[in-house]
Amino acid sequence: MSTTLKRVHGFLAEFDNVQDLYHAAEQVRDAGYQRWDVHSPFPIHGMDHAMGVKRSKLPYFVFFGGLTGTCVAFTLQTITQTTFWSDIGLGFLQKLAETYPTVVQAKPTHIWTLPAFFPVMFELTILFSAFTVLFGLLGHIGLPRLNHPLFVSKRFAKFSDDTFFVCIEARDAKFSQEGTKAFLEKIGGKNVELIEDDI
Amino acid sequence: MATATAHTTEAHTGPARILDREPLVLNNRSYSWITNRVCGIVENKQPLLWWILFVPSVLLTGLTVFCFAYLISTGVGVWGQKQPVAWAWDITNFVFWIGIGHAGTLISAILFLTRQKWRTSVNRAAEAMTIFAVMCAGLFPAFHVGRVWMVWFLAPIPNANAIWQNFKSPLLWDVFAVSTYFTVSAIFWFLGLVPDLATLRDRCKPGLRKALYGIFSLGWRGSNRHWSHYETAYMLLAALSTPLVLSVHSVVSFDFATSIVPGWHTTIFPPYFVAGAIFGGFAMVLTLMIPVSKIYGLGDLITPKHIDNMAKIILLTGTIVGYAYCMEFFIAYYGANKYELQTFQLRGLYGPSTWAYYFMFGFNVFAPQLFWYRPFRHNMWVVMFVCMCVNAGMWFERYVIIATTLERHLTPGSWRVYEATWVDKYTFLGTFGLFMMLFLLFLRFLPVIAIGEVKGVLPQSDAHNDGHGEKGIQEEDLMNYPDRHVAKSVA
Asked: Across chain A, what does the average pLDDT equal?
């Protein structure tokens, strides 16, 4: 259903090169804006500092993701191939899984056969970590999504080619229809455009 | 201040110095030039040569499908394996293909961690190559199990027999290593593709293509708040892939090293296999990238510098491999195990398959030595020739280790010289078709060069490189980078 009502998303300003963008970002940061972003075809070294963005928390998630992998591999292998869980009084786990250790070349079935399990523990640590990286990243950045108000702008399509953008969103406390536009023009933004979203 | 100015002028007019860094992208190309050139490959009609290569590749893939169908319908006897040679071409091909993949991960992960910026022009294609090579590799052990429809027994899934895998076996480690390797490589590759798929999406007219690129680019909008997490994610994946790639070929080598077969039971195998894998993989990267660069006019992105660097890595790893060959021989003698010694004597001196050993040694150790000489590293014909030698040589290495060792097993009564059947040969030949077909489709539908990453290493992408903008950096900027700041602060 289409309506004539539109919601203002924010102002989009264009910059020609990385250096102008960098200085503009510093000024937006210093002006105290919170809800704003920079769009560039590639990651710009130092831009996090210019924007005042904090370091990503992703590594902490990945650490626990990896740890989960190690534990899964340890449990999987010890339950199916050793008597470890019975030895520590948790035999019901082994009964639950209905397992019979495979004895080859008289290798032991107690916990000290553990070094033979290291390769699989290592691989699953990596596997679980990698999945945590992927899904952790998507969770952090709120993607995938099929649309975004910015894609309404015809000029914005150049963000993935050679143009740089600063977008200050309307939900920022300091946003004002005239003031923000003037501010973006003052810091060197070109073709400042009002981005509106269908409700 | 005056000194700084004088210095600038001097550097500008003077001849290029020997220790100047060569630019990563030649001719000061702009961002949009890179976008147009790389996306153009996907958007324009493919050259005739693409079809000339694609059609035979599809036919060869069909050959592999036919051979496997014949194998399943007739039985594993159609392969040349007979006692004592129970592992032969299939495992050779498996190790060969999995090794090819390693260069892709080395370029994408290890060179990323060591901040080798030249990797950006070749990492995308090399990662694609990794994935396709691992696909080819996976076919062989899957069919080698005999009854391929039982291959799901490799996965730790509860089953009616209540019998679980033997996790103490290196063969099962291999299952985990290779499947993890494939998955992580695919994630890494996909994550790297996301920004470039967004570039393709933004250039498309509305329609099916735009919708598909749109879905796979996840709605990417180049936001710096996203890039910040993205770069962390990318680095984490690089840091995870680095030990992973070293572990994969180590685990592959455990298939042999943890056995008690003379000639296999050696501690040198893991590093030796990893070096060999990187060596063979780089040869395959160059085999693919030199023609791609020439055909699609990517000479400004894949420069002689890139090829030179990769040639040096081939020289280094080839020499490590040569050292391993010699050390194996020495330890066989020095270790005073007569079975071990005899295995090596039969392998290299008077056995039935010494020809394979000589091919291996010549192709892998002598051919790369040409790369000591700079003009050879800069002559594409010489580079291609050496790479072809290495591609073949690395296959022979695995053949020597696997088949010729088993031909002369402990019991002389069971000695038999291995002979490959036509099914063995055509199956292997067909996997080259599969590999090429996948690679050509990759060229057709996905950006062959990591557009975003290459843009990021251009001089004009440095936020502190004031005043040059789109034009690109001049030589003196690199030379006097610290001086400029001194001059500024004095002023």
From this structure: 89
Does the beta-carbon distance from B229 to A140 stay under 8 Å? yes
Q: Is the ipTM of this complex over 0.90?
A: yes
Q: Which residue of A has its CA nearest to B30?
A: A162
pLDDT band of B459, cuts 50, 70, 90: confident
Cα–Cα distance measured from residue B79 to residue B425, given in angstroms and rounded to the nearest whole number: 9
pLDDT in tens, A63-119: 999 999 999 999 999 888 888 888 888 888 777 776 778 888 888 888 898 999 999
- How far apart CA B303 and CA B293 sit, in angstroms, is 9
Given a cut of 80, whether residue A2 has pLDDT beyond it is no
Distance from CA of A159 to the nearest CA of B (A): 7
Gap between the Cα atoms of B236 and B291, Å rounded: 32
Chain B closest CA to A73's CA: distance in Å? 10
Query: How many whole angstroms separate alpha carbon B263 and alpha carbon B348?
Result: 12
B151: how many CB neighbours lie within 10 A of its CB?
A: 16
First vs last Cα of chain A: how many Å apart? Answer: 10
Give the closest of A127, A147, A160 to B184, CB-based: A127
Half-sphere exposure of A46 toward its Cβ, with a 13 Å CA cutoff? 12
- Chain A residue at shortest CA distance from B469: A17
Flag whether residue B115 sits within 8 Å of chain A, measured between CB atoms: no
Chain A CB within 8 Å of residue B172 CB: yes
Nearest-CA distance A125 → chain B (Å): 9
Q: Do B281 and B100 meet the contact criterion of CB atoms below 8 Å apart?
A: yes
Tell me: the pLDDT tens digits for B79-92?
988 888 888 899 99
Which of the residues B224, B237, B255, B466 would you substitute to probe the A interface, choosing the one with the greatest number of A C-beta atoms within 10 Å? B224
What is the spatial distance between Cα A24 and Cα B433, in angstroms, rounded to a whole number? 52
Q: What share of chain B is helix, strand, coil (3-state, %, to 5)?
A: 75, 0, 25
- Residue in B72, B3, B13 with CA at minimum distance from that of residue B476: B13
